[in-house]
């Protein structure tokens, strides 16, 4: 080992021990993780404080009939007393009151929603009008690590209403509880607002568009999807077959095959996808993997035709439709973030997650 000591008065950089780099990496990781924990703790304390302020104000309004003028004066006094803290504008005080009224039981909301930032809570208060919907999106935001913009996107695209709405045969072809989990991960329709395809677009055009915006596509698919490849090659009986898109779902512990169609659903699509699922199960599925799931994404579908096509099929298949940017209502397009915004947010989330893991 090199001598780590510096000769007195030499002014040279000392030789470092062989394990110095490993120690430095370990300390940097520990410090980075502590910074993340500190930031989370600060956020939780701030949200808790805002709930306490809102609860106290609601009590005064209820008991003493405090009005808007009193709250305006309170805002001025709090900002003067705590100029470095901020957050005590009259508008924010009203949000605090709504926040405390929306989550009246501290022992409950502190376990869930206190982990979200205040900007997330403002979105939940502004855009959702029932406790059940707010709680669902709060949990989804925590699970997915959504930024504020992504939360807005998911609410405006009506994720809650679309989730679990696909036609499937999962209850018959998958064991519980996997059948319920698999059903919940599918949506109908899928909102591909980041794509604009012409009326004459082919499946390969749609596939290329999704791959060009893979991050936004993964965001729409939901938590747990890991991309394995497109035009995934399988050999069956000496013949080549190519899957449009292949994923692995980390929570279901199974492969997911997605086939893209730019036409209305046809019964033969289910038969072809069923063949692909058998091939994946025999060629790729390993010990511990659950049965492979298939998803058909079609431009349109006749629910009765889909029902008949899946009725006797023994493979777990779901059928959904999708909407492109030019098919979305204008008012919905106006509120959705751009692809660049989504990708920037996902990049920030990935960077933050990487730092936390490091």
Please give a structural write-up.
The structure is a single chain. By secondary structure, this protein is α/β, with parallel strands linked by helices. Helices cover 55% and strands 14% of the residues. It contains 16 helices and 7 strands. Strands 1, 2, 3, 4, 5, 6 and 7 form a 7-stranded mixed beta sheet that branches. A hairpin with a 2-residue loop joins strand 3 and strand 4. Helix 13 packs across helix 14. The radius of gyration is 26 Å and the shape is globular. The N terminus and C terminus are likely disordered.
- Specify the number of helices: 16
Query: Which residue ranges are poorly predicted, with pLDDT under 50 across at least 5 consecutive positions?
Result: 1-10, 331-339, 353-358
Provide the β-strand percentage band.
Answer: 5-15%
User: Would you tell me the overall average pLDDT?
Assistant: 81
Structural class: alpha/beta
- Tell me the distance between the termini: 28 Å
